[in-house]
Specification:
Length: 158
């Protein structure tokens, strides 16, 4: 029996450390918000009327909303998907860095690795016969690009 989906098993969030741990994106999000922020610092020069600016770092962010609807009769799948994504915001002690993920999204994200910066979710459609577990969840996911290489301008242009 096929589950409730609009992605036909083609969109996934996969752990880099263990590719067997993955989450199917159940419904195609209506939009993706991609932000690039650069940090520049003003360098004050004695006798100069305006500061010079030095680029110090930058960050690429990806935000989108996931929609989960219960496929399982016991309704546990919705909350378990939310908990799994929430767990990626946690750290397992000082020696283990946050998990990185790979997004399978057709030709859009083919080489990028991401770290989960934030997870917010809204649960709804509770039923007493299923222990008041939610049948629906909307989850806002916030990711930051976390590559081993230093991405350069030329990487985007080519």
């Amino acid at each position: 029996m096929a589950g409730l989906t609009t992605t036909d098993g083609n969109l996934y969030i996969i752990l880099v450390s263990n590719p067997e741990h993955r989450l199917e994106v159940q419904f195609i999000p209506p939009e993706l918000l991609i932000q690039r922020q650069g940090d520049v610092q003003a360098v004050q020069i004695v006798g100069r009327n305006n500061p010079l600016y030095q680029y110090t770092a930058g960050e690429k962010l990806l935000n989108f909303q996931l929609d989960f609807h219960a496929d399982e009769e016991n309704r546990r799948d919705v909350i378990e998907k939310c908990y799994w994504l929430e767990s990626l915001v946690y750290n397992d002690g000082y020696s283990n860095p946050p998990e990185r993920i790979f997004i399978v999204w057709g030709q859009l994200f083919t080489t990028e690795l991401w770290t989960v910066k934030g997870v917010n979710y809204r649960l709804s459609q509770f039923h007493a016969e299923y222990g008041y577990l939610p049948c629906q969840a909307y989850l806002d996911l916030s990711l930051a690009l976390d590559m081993d290489i230093d991405v350069r301008k030329s990487d985007l242009i080519t």
